[in-house]
Amino acid sequence: MRFVFKTTYQQDLALFRDKFQRDWYLALMACLLVLPMLLPEYLVDFSLVLIFGLCALSLMVLAGFTGLVSLGHAAFLGIGAYAHVYFSQDLGLPWILSVALATGLTAAVGVLVGTPALRMTGIYLTIATLAFALIIQEVFNRWDAVTGGLRGKAVEKPVIFGVALHSDAAFYFLCLAFLVGGLWITRNVLRAPTGRAWVAIRDSEIAAQSMGVNLAVYKTMAFACSAAMTGTAGALFAHQVGFLAPDIFTVLLSIQFLLMVVVGGLGSLHGAIYGAICVALLPVLISEARDRVPDWFGQLFGVFGKSAGLAVAAAVDRFVKQPGLEPGIFGLILVLFILFEPQGIYGRWVKVKLYFSLFPLYKRATFARQKSYMKSERLR
Amino acid sequence: MTFFAVDALSMEFGGIRAVDCVSFTVEPGEVFTIIGPNGAGKTTIFNLVSRIYDPTDGRLIFLDEDITRLPPHKIAERGIARTFQNIELFEHATVLQNLLLGRHVHKRTLFIEELLFLPKVRRLELKHREAVERVIDFLDLQPHRDSLIVNLPYGVRKVVELARALSTEPKLLLLDEPSSGLNVEETDDMAFWIQDIKELLGITVLMVEHDMRLVSAVSDRVLALDYGRPIAVGTAGEVQADPEVIRAYLGG
């Protein structure tokens, strides 16, 4: 176990705990930079992980740090995507400007959604954002002039400062840059007064406002920031999918975003990334499994004779080709996490780390919370 | 100049008059205590002063300014900080983060500066940290600086709440039952700290308290309430000897 001996207040403001941690992150960065060389066939999926990472990050700011759960983030993603494509292709604006405008527009929509949301809390707010997402999806359907309606809209490859990013690797690096930038900005806000105010609102609104936090302003700000970041992700997402259609931005996508933050671990930036990896790569894993798992079962049961093996392989094949398998597995994962590890992957990771650093003295009770019988009564 | 005055304050919940035409003034530098049996309206007065409730009638005046209709977050900016009877800390944050939130009223950075964590933000954060460390020193919270609130015992949480209120550098400190849930030694500590807050930091204290030992030890003046109406005001000794107060507590 490594203890950090703090000698200045600066250390609490630093991005990394100590230089070991910084070196680990640098090593991770190096790995991510050479990844395109190692696994070129999966680059498109990795780009999706990075884009979903940005979405998870934005929802983490809202749900994990400010305590406002939204089921409308697919709509923000869609607004960002359509706006970017409209600005850059139909209006012919430069790429960077177009992304900036799309981000700004989504932030403005975020403010509009966030403002009535101030009067609602908990599940009611979630329902309101859900309604918003449904309305926006209908807008995507109907507003033919901008969105292309049900016919959809093809998206060209990004061209930044005259440089066309045609290769998958170039796009991957672009997404990586955006995600790292997003993480940096989020960390900055979280270690500054605004981030503290958000966490305060999450834990006790009444105390937060008694300490001088203007609830309306900070909640709206959280909404706007979260929407803006999702909007940026939407611009990248448009290039990633290459073709926009209203049925991409369904409530199911919003639920996937929520799944990312819950599975990753609410209230941690690591969690957002873990969740994004999990949710974005699972479909890839499932499609790989579709091709291979029946054969494995066939070989396994082949010991009982060739016909038994073939029969089992065919049965497993039928099962894994069921259309509802993917959402089913997502649902199962969510339920299992809520039951057994409410702290998400990050919470489990912290426990595993502590287990090894304290070995053999780790006690399960370390993370058991004392039951509080004196739950404070809310004043409103 | 009026430091703090409550003028004919009333609060009705449906048909119940929880606070009925209460008036008092608090002089700068004193410890003013409100006592009364359960349901006398003490905490309601606190919630009115910190603007969590809207009074039905009456006025609140702080430093010659009418604060009756100010939104709650402006109250903190004016220099009034409070603690809560049942502790309202940010449970999934560390003690340090809780206290730093107390510095929110002294926030001088723009959001755009925070996004990039400009040197100005860093400089001000260090200033806040120094102010918070002074409070940590004052209340001996050093061992708990980096622990999460959920992992702290009740007595310490109570002190952290006091510390968070002090971090705002208030002119008037509202303490809602500072000794509730504390054992005898912790209550004694609390009494010393309240005296120190008054004498060393020069902060005026308005508190609601049940423990008469603590009240007698620290209060300059005491106001007794019963059914939302003031029945006696004076030093702790005078109020305790008042026949009205004895009747209110013991019946008869």
Structural account:
The complex is a heterodimer of chains A (380) and B (252). Chain A has 380 residues and is mainly α. Chain A has a domain at 33-284: ABC transporter involved in vitamin B12 uptake, BtuC (Orthogonal Bundle), CATH 1.10.3470. Chain A contains 16 helices and 4 strands. In chain A, helix 8 (168-190) runs antiparallel to helix 11. The longest helix of chain A is centred in the C-terminal third of the chain and has 33 residues, at 269-301. Chain A starts with 9 loop residues before the first helix and ends in a 22-residue tail after the last helix. Mean pLDDT of chain A is 88; it is low at 372-380. Chain B folds into 2 domains: 1-79 and 170-252, P-loop containing nucleotide triphosphate hydrolases (Rossmann fold, 3-Layer(aba) Sandwich), CATH 3.40.50; 90-169, no CATH class. Chain B contains 10 helices and 10 strands. In chain B, a hairpin with a 2-residue loop joins strand 9 (221-226) and strand 10 (229-234). In chain B, helix 3 packs parallel to helix 6 and helix 5 packs across helix 6. Chain B is globular. The interface between A and B is large, with 38 and 50 residues.
In short:
The complex is a heterodimer of chains A (380) and B (252). Chain A is an all-alpha fold and 380 residues long.
